[in-house]
Design goal:
Blueprint: E1 7-10, E2 13-14, E3 17-18, E4 24-27, H1 36-53, E5 61-65, H2 68-80, E6 88-93, E7 98-100, E8 108-109, H3 115-150, H4 156-166, H5 169-174, H6 177-184, H7 186-196
Helix pairs in contact: 1-2, 6-7
Domain UvrC family homology region profile: 1-78
Protein name: UvrC family homology region profile domain-containing protein
GO molecular function, one term: excinuclease ABC activity
Amino acid sequence: MQGTHPVAACVVFKNGKPSKKEYRHYNIKTVVGPDDFASMEEVVFRRYKRLLSENEPLPQLIVIDGGKGQLSSALKSLDVLGLRGKIAIIGIAKRLEEIYYPGDAVPLYLDKKSETLKIIQQLRNEAHRFGITFHRNKRSKSAIQSELEQIPTIGKQTITTLLRKFKSAKRVKKASFEELEAEIGHARANIIFKYFNPKEK
């Protein structure tokens, strides 16, 4: 997911079913600006470097969300990690549901009723759902924190104090006047509480 908060998602299926405890989110760290290929390269490297370092079992198949470009980017990371040829990998391009294999410029088209295609589509769609949910939550948290910074006369130190206590900007927004007052005093608590609760007396 590109934008102001680029993220990626990894889902895991075992025996054709989601293994949700093994799902992972990734904040893109090394890529500046929207670059789908570089982001794919970063995430694949981080994912499988960690599995190797923790001696975790590797998957039988990696399904990349994308066509030739995304697949090539993923393969670069597998090369660096010495994993090319040790794990099967394919890419699925959404427009025509084309299946790409490494080193083959011509995609494979599976029968639309194929159970294999249905599993691959389910994987891809589940990754989209998981990633979109994470992306929306991240943007929402950022928006609320930015809103804290917009409150007149409330400085960074006060915001830091509140976030240390309440753990998230969303909880600050929902806090009672008494809870705020206990942390930052009457005057500043009054300003913040009235800002988020303008109808309260």
